[in-house]
Amino acid sequence: MEMVRTIRVVAAVIEQDGRYLITQRRPTAVLPMLWEFPGGRVEETETDAAALKREVRHRLDVEIEVGQLISFVSHPYERYVVDLYLYECHIKSGELASLAVNAFRWVTSAEFDRYPFTPADEASMNKLLGMT
């Protein structure tokens, strides 16, 4: 039996005034044009917090403060498994810009169903909102 690769991914749940920051993947990305919480892959030598700060800065040009772990899901895709860790985060400085994302939006949890999310993020949202 073939070993399935597991990818550790971190994402920031950033809430301001009852709205959450979500980002849309670029047309050339894996799972193109789907929405997700901002974040990315953890490199071998990184902590989750360091990876999250790096990925959010790379994608949105803001510095964040990483808080506590609020959710974890493991989601199998066709060729790999994504272990997704969601952290409560806050923007410390900078102006949001779409550097390495197609778009970003501030949305309420009631609006989540208007956006097609990646399967791992969808599973995380369902868990966060108590829908599982």
UniProtKB/TrEMBL annotation:
It catalyses: 8-oxo-GTP + H2O = 8-oxo-GMP + diphosphate + H(+); 8-oxo-dGTP + H2O = 8-oxo-dGMP + diphosphate + H(+). Its EC number is 3.6.1.55. PROSITE patterns: NUDIX. Keywords: DNA damage, DNA repair, DNA replication, Hydrolase, Magnesium, Metal-binding, Mutator protein. It comes from the Bacteria. Its cofactor is Mg(2+). Residues 5-132 form the Nudix hydrolase domain. GO terms for molecular function: 8-oxo-7,8-dihydrodeoxyguanosine triphosphate pyrophosphatase activity; 8-oxo-7,8-dihydroguanosine triphosphate pyrophosphatase activity; 8-oxo-dGDP phosphatase activity; 8-oxo-GDP phosphatase activity; metal ion binding. One of its GO terms (biological process) is DNA replication. InterPro entries: MutT-like, MutY_C, NUDIX_hydrolase-like_dom_sf, NUDIX_hydrolase_dom. Belongs to the Nudix hydrolase family. This is 8-oxo-dGTP diphosphatase. It comes from Sorangium cellulosum (strain So ce56). The lineage of its organism: Bacteria, Pseudomonadati, Myxococcota, Polyangia, Polyangiales.
